[in-house]
């Protein structure tokens, strides 16, 4: 019997909750990376930023494809395939063209047939600047579906059949990747995912320079929010002596402080709120740290790899 609409739920799995570089980062010995190596029970390792969504628990769409995609695909739930080859990934939705979100596309080239859902701006960066798209297309058919800002489109399987999920990209304040030769609208977006069956929704915003009231209103109407948890403070890299850019200059609104994301997100009552894309330097990665307690007391969760949800 065909399942009725109310039986449809979107499964969402966090495949990687670290920012670019992962946690611990290979060349980093900051206090949190040290803890991840010496006391893993206090700071769980995390792969690079990626999330998977599925309606049937077998056919998955990746929200961003990280350089860790090979291990991440291996963690996808689903039945053991009967055939010799099996591609559980139907398509990739990219929120930007940064390397941590798109290097995984080329690593999936053995798929033979992939789909990519991107804005025109992201498509152009992948074509002309990183060349990840033509490189992948030398090995596999990649059907590119352009998303328009503010318009929702169905996520279709490679067969053309609708999955029952729609996605709508919305612009977030951020700069383009540093290797992009031009800046055009839509180079960095957040996504609203909607389950057409249940009406449940999820906002996926792994990179955001600033939350404004319009965005807060929008994400406040969803059931699940996966939000940019990159940096705890604006001067995090500077005070550790490992960088000279502030979080905001890197287009990530810090979590703490009067103008941080924590105090703004704490005002939202409807969605379940989870931080993801967490940089390896962020002290909230440490279980039992004062920063972790502050986040949890505000009713927000610190994402970890393997966390799953249904909407
Ligand atoms: C970011 O999230 O700001 C980018 O992924 C930066 C990077 O890849 O280095
Ligand atoms: Mn990133
Ligand atoms: Zn580190």
CATH class: Alpha Beta
Structural class: alpha/beta
C-alpha-based Rg, rounded: 19 Å
Helix content: 10-25%
When the domains are counted, the total is 1
Number of helical stretches of at least 4 residues: 9
Q: Whole-number average pLDDT?
A: 96
Total strands: 14
Name the strands of the widest sheet in spatial order.
6-5-4-3-2-1-14
CATH architecture: 4-Layer Sandwich
**CATH homologous superfamily identity:** Ribonuclease Z/Hydroxyacylglutathione hydrolase-like
**SSE topology string:** EHEEHEHEHHEEEEEHEHHEHEE
Question: What's the arrangement of secondary structure elements?
Answer:
Blueprint: E1 11-16, H1 31-38, E2 50-54, E3 60-63, H2 69-74, E4 89-93, H3 99-107, E5 113-119, H4 120-129, H5 132-137, E6 141-147, E7 153-156, E8 162-171, E9 189-195, E10 201-205, H6 213-219, E11 224-228, H7 236-239, H8 261-265, E12 272-276, H9 290-297, E13 300-302, E14 308-310
Parallel strand pairs: 3-4, 4-5, 5-6, 10-11, 11-12, 12-13
Antiparallel strand pairs: 1-2, 1-14, 2-3, 7-8, 8-9, 9-10
Bound molecules: D-malate, manganese (II) ion and zinc ion.
């Amino acid at each position: 019997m065909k399942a009725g609409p109310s039986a449809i739920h979107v499964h969402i799995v966090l495949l990687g909750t670290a920012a670019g570089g992962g946690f611990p980062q290979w060349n980093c010995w900051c206090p949190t990376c040290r803890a991840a190596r010496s006391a893993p029970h206090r700071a769980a390792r995390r792969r690079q930023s990626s999330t998977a969504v599925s309606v049937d628990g077998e056919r998955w769409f990746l929200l961003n494809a990280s350089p860790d995609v090979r291990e991440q695909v291996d963690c996808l739930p689903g039945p053991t395939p009967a055939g010799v080859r099996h591609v559980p990934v139907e398509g990739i939705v990219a929120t930007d063209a940064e390397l941590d979100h798109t290097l995984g596309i080329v690593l999936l080239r053995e798929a033979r047939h992939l789909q990519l859902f991107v804005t025109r701006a992201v498509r152009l960066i992948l074509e002309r600047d990183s060349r990840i798209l033509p490189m992948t297309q030398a090995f596999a058919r990649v059907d590119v579906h352009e998303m328009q800002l503010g318009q929702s489109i169905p996520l279709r399987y490679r067969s053309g059949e609708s999955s029952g999920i729609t996605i709508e990209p919305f612009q977030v304040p951020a700069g383009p990747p540093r290797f992009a030769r031009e800046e055009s609208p839509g180079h960095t977006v957040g996504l609203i995912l909607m389950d057409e069956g249940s009406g449940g929704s999820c906002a996926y915003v792994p990179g955001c320079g600033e939350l404004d009231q319009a965005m807060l209103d929008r994400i406040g109407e969803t059931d699940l929010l996966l939000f940019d948890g990159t940096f705890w403070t604006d001067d995090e890299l500077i005070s550790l002596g490992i960088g000279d850019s502030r979080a905001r200059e890197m287009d990530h609104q810090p979590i703490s402080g009067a103008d941080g994301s924590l105090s703004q997100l704490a005002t939202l009552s409807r969605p379940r709120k989870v931080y993801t894309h967490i940089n390896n330097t962020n002290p909230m990665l440490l279980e039992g740290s004062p920063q972790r307690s502050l986040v949890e007391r505000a009713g927000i969760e610190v994402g970890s790899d393997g966390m799953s949800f249904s909407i």
